[in-house]
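ok here's RING-type domain-containing protein, seq below lol
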Amino acid sequence: MSSKRLRKKRSLPAGPLPAQVSWLENVSMDVTPLSSRSRTSCRRVDYLLTVTYQPRGAAETTTWQFIRTFDAFRFFRKRLVAALQRGHFCHAECPWLYTFLKSYFPKSQLVGSTLSRVVARRRKTLTRSLATIRSFLLKRSNHSCHLVMEGVARELLEFVVKGASEPENEQQGEAPECLRMLLLRWQNGEMQLVEASSSSDDTTPCDDDTGPETEICAVCEASLMEPLQHDREINDDRWDCRTMISTFSTLDCGHNFHDECLVEKLNEELKCPTCGHQETS
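and the structure came out like this:
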């Protein structure tokens, strides 16, 4: 427990975030399902991506929306996985993100993809996936990996900015000029990678208030962004799925748990271990 507290106090020095990720501090993303019927009377479900941009201290916000198919989200996930280049060595949490994208991101299914419970689960999972990718990119210790900064960050920017300008996507509103110019500079090779001053834990102690809140399992109080201790001892290969964190779940009340922690508690009583909210399934 003491080592956990010590590690929490030691973080990378605070300072301006690199341009590749600093825009994410001002962005929030939400996914909403849209149901429609074609001429063949077959129900089709697409997903409306709503992006809100509000610079810190500004009163005005910019919001734009565009429709993505579920396959478009799956292709986005495939591009992120490719950008991570499984097996590379770095000091960032790339193996964790790789496993998250491979295991948590919603799967395709041939039957029942338009059922209301499936659609609701997909909406929830897609929204959480985007939020998790955002949190990963804002975490300063991950900025030491050039694949994260040059690949993953750019893929997300293209997905939320370029997607709104693609003619096949119905849209409302437009991404702010600053983000469109950022993407253009990136595509023209004008972005210069700003490396973190250090990628080790031996850095100047300070509170990293500018980063995202740490995701914590409400049962074991361990970070969802790190391997469980007993899983770390299985194998030293950082990219081996057995050394990654276990998958995690979010209950309807919003509390997060490692799956193995949650199953044990739900077997005792079908309610949230933290707030007591009754779970129906």
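fwiw Residues 10 and 205 are 5 Å apart (CA to CA). kinda neat tbh
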